[in-house]
Amino acid sequence: SDTATYDVQDEDDTSKLIRLPWSHVMRLSTGTEACFEKGADCMAIFPETTSFYKAKVSKAPLWKLDRYTGVPAVKEIIVKFEDDEDGTGNTPHRRVPSRYVIPVPAQYFYDEDADVDLTTPSATA
Question: Where is the SGF29 C-terminal domain (predicted)?
Fold first, then answer.
C-alpha cells in the first residue's frame, strides 16, 4: 500500500526515530547485484561515518565465489568520493563494503515539498 511506512534510525544516534514512507527507503546491496562498473556514479558510505556521499566507482569490482553459498559476489567496491581531494589535489581511492554502495537514487532525495513526516514517532504508534 502507498501508506506503508518504516521507522528508521541512524546507527550512531539510536535515540531518534524518523518515520518515512516506504518509497523513501532503499534496501542495501547484498553484493550479488551486477549494477556497478568502473566509472559508474553511486552513493557510498564514507569510511568511518554513517552517511552516504556521491562517489564514482574507480576500479572494476572483483567478483569472487562466496565460500558458503557458491554465489558470485562483490565484497567491496573501490570508489572516489566527490570533494575528497587531499592536500595535493588528488582524490584517493577508498574501499567501501559493497553493501554500503547504492545507485544514485535521485527520486529518493529529500525534497522540501515532499510529504515526509520528520517528527519523532511516538512509542505507541
Answer: 1-110
pLDDT at 108: 47
Is residue 73 helix, strand or coil?
A: strand
The DSSP bridge partners found for residue 80 are 56
pTM of the model: 0.68
Q: Which residues contact 65 (CB under 8 A, 6 or more apart)?
A: 71, 72, 73
**CA distances for 93 relative to 40, 57, 79, 81, 110, angstroms:** 14, 9, 6, 8, 28
**CA distance readout (Å), 39 to 31, 71, 77, 117:** 18, 25, 12, 35
Q: Whats the size of the chain, residue-wise?
A: 125
CA–CA separation, 31 and 96 (whole Å): 11
Which residues of the chain register pLDDT less than 50? 1, 108, 125
Q: Where are the domains of the chain?
A: 27-108
CATH number 2.30.30.140 given to 27-108: yes
